[in-house]
Design a protein that fits this description.
The protein is an alpha/beta fold. The chain is built from 23 helices and twelve strands. The protein folds into two domains: 268 residues, Rossmann fold; 262 residues, no CATH class. It holds the Pfam family Abhydrolase_1.
Length: 618
């Protein structure tokens, strides 16, 4: 097994030869850094109306000694490059003072793009109370999302009703191609329909972050970023290297490359997590899970059979429960190890449905309850029946129950919007699709504007990765009308930052994270976690080793003297770690050149993670 510094050397060799000779979009000019704007004094002098955050009581239930967290909204320019050219917008923030001697301001981001982070810093501290004592904690919803001024993606009932439909995006037919092109164009038009659309970008959010640091008069900013939050962290460090405090970048995007290259990792990284960890786990628990198989091959065959039956019912007009929706549920749910039980339940619920379809064409209470009964009590202890019922909308969540979050994808947004359009009184009636996180991706880096390029790639990926190879289809960025505000990241002048990466992460591929590390060797230290696939590691990690390294850095500033490989703890309801021959062991997918946790985390932190995972396809 390759260990320590050998990881970067061995894998750097693997990263030279292209995996995908057709995956690089049309050559674009090399990005250059935009000018760093000054902050007009009026924004720093603005009066701020603070009030106790609505979630403060929940924080104190989880950690009674927590300081009070206050919330407010602050005004920032819509466009930092031209502060007077557009109306101001608002960014929602939360803040608490350190209970001990403050080491400065600590912010965070949960991912996305588009993940709301207002509660995250406080939620992390309920799991790691030393954050409350050592840092002033800042949470914020990025511009365009959550309680900040919302991005509005506006279309009309007529345009929605004109959209073609396909029974299954996985079937790479002319109909599917036509659907994907039409949906992408509608989404691009909708999200660029207001003047705000072009300014919902990473670079503008980085300027917002620097404004918040200055607003609180903190000399530097410390930061814990997950997933897309690593992109924000890397961009901030490149734009404001002298202001970088202690940055933990966890579950890293390949943030020195393009947004397209990042989303094109998803099919292989998602399939690797499913096939090397979820399905083997289900097979090993065949005595505790009824009817899915006792080998990974049997589990996969059963999954494919269930999915095929779902598609057959949709094509017959007898069901609205789609096979591609099941794929999306599984992809987002396996972000977390403890959610293997929920992923298993999703498969079982759909199995019950295809065995006994409902007259309503939807999942009903009996399907959920029968699925639940197919799990042993030991596995049921990792979730609740009430949460799963609420997840499928067959009962309302009880007042004391946190509902299992439903997957929120761009495709489901359009499906819901079409239902709204069907009730419209006129074709020109506007319909707000809400804030689509892909807008950020379109504004950040250059994309090909040839839909055929993406169709060919989705067709090829669907053949190569049979789980979710088709997932990207044609992105709305193919039709985006605004030029991106990109950066050329070199991190010149930045102190070292800590990168933490699980080997089998389904959402941010290990290979891409390592490539970014190799691009930034002078400014990053890399901690790999062998045989681990959870998305989001530091704070509540399955790896005691990674947790300890993160703690030393966050609370003392000490980084390892060299890159590290950590071990991890077993998956739920298991006593040992089962090895996977993955990229840490030298078995990487080739890319284009260029303390032990129990599995249970703070319920508030788990809810933040679930929401971000569920919105990962939006």
């Amino acid at each position: 097994m390759i260990k320590n510094q050998k990881v970067a050397v061995a894998l750097a060799a693997l990263l030279v030869a292209p995996l995908l000779t057709t995956t690089t979009a049309a050559a674009a000019p090399q990005p250059t850094d935009p000018p760093t704007p000054s902050i007009p004094q009026k924004y720093l002098d603005q009066p701020i109306q603070w009030s106790v955050c609505s979630f403060d009581a929940q924080i104190k239930r989880l950690y009674p000694q927590a300081p009070t967290t206050n919330c407010a909204k602050v005004k920032v320019p819509m466009d930092w490059a031209n502060p007077t050219a557009h109306p101001d917008i608002e960014v929602a923030i939360s803040y608490s003072k350190a209970t001990g001697t403050s080491r400065g301001l600590m912010a965070s981001n949960p991912g996305g793009p588009g993940g709301a982070g207002l509660t995250l810093s406080a939620a992390l501290a309920t799991e790691k109370p030393q954050l409350f004592s050592d840092f002033d904690l800042l949470g914020f919803d990025p511009r365009g999302f959550g309680q900040s001024t919302p991005l509005q993606c506006i279309t009309t009932a007529e345009e929605l009703e004109a959209l073609p439909v396909t029974p299954d995006y996985k079937e790479r037919t002319k109909l599917t191609h036509r659907v994907e092109v039409a949906e992408a164009k509608l989404l691009a038009d909708a999200c660029s329909a207001t003047e705000f659309g072009q300014f919902v970008s990473s670079q503008q959010t980085v300027y917002d972050m620097e404004f918040l640091r200055a607003l609180f008069k903190s000399r530097q900013l410390s930061f814990i970023g997950y997933s897309y939050g690593t992109w924000l962290g890397g961009w901030y460090a490149d734009a404001y290297p002298s202001k970088v405090g202690r940055f933990v970048l966890d579950s890293n995007m390949d943030w020195t490359h393009t947004q397209w290259q990042n989303v094109n990792f998803d099919p292989f990284s998602g399939q690797r997590r499913r096939d090397t960890q979820l399905f083997p786990w289900i097979a090993r628990h065949a005595d505790q899970i009824t009817g899915l198989g006792s080998t990974p091959a049997q589990v996969k065959a059963r999954y494919n059979g269930i999915r095929a039956s779902l598609v057959t019912l949709v094509k017959a007009g007898e069901s609205s429960v789609r096979g591609d929706d099941l794929d999306g549920k599984i992809y987002s749910t396996i972000y977390g190890n403890v959610r293997f039980i929920r992923a298993t339940l999703d498969i079982l619920v759909h199995d019950e449905f295809v065995k006994d379809p409902s007259a309503s064409g939807a999942v009903e209470l009996r399907h959920v309850d029968k699925a639940w009964a197919r799990l042993s009590p030991e596995l049921q202890a990792f979730d609740t029946l009430a949460a799963i019922r609420a997840r499928y909308g067959v009962t309302a969540a009880a007042a004391d129950t946190v509902a299992a979050v439903q997957v929120d994808s761009a495709k489901s947004v359009l499906a819901d919007a079409r239902q709204t359009a069907a009730r419209a009184t006129s074709g020109d009636q506007p319909v707000n699709l809400g804030a689509i996180g892909t807008t950020v991706r379109c504004n950040d880096t250059a994309w090909s504007h040839d839909p055929k390029f993406y169709l060919r790639e989705a067709d090829r990926m669907a053949r190569k990765y049979d789980f979710f190879g088709y997932m990207n289809g044609v992105p709305m960025c193919a039709f985006w009308k605004y030029a991106p505000q990109d950066r050329k990241l070199d991190l010149k002048g930045s102190p070292r930052m800590l990168m933490v990466q699980a080997e089998l992460d389904p959402a941010t591929a290990y290979e891409g994270a390592l490539r970014t590390h190799n691009d930034t060797l002078r400014a990053t230290r890399f901690v790999a976690i062998d045989d681990e696939g959870q998305h989001g590691q530091y704070i509540g990690s399955a790896s005691a080793c990674a947790e300890a390294i993160g703690d030393r850095f966050v609370f003392t500033g000490e980084l390892p003297g060299k890159d590290q490989v950590c071990g991890t703890s077993p998956l739920p309801a298991e006593l040992s770690v089962f090895p996977v021959d993955g990229p840490v062991d030298g078995n990487a997918v080739r890319l284009p050149k260029s303390r032990a946790n129990t599995g249970k985390t703070s319920p508030m932190l788990q809810q933040v993670r679930d929401i971000v995972a569920a919105g990962s396809l939006r």
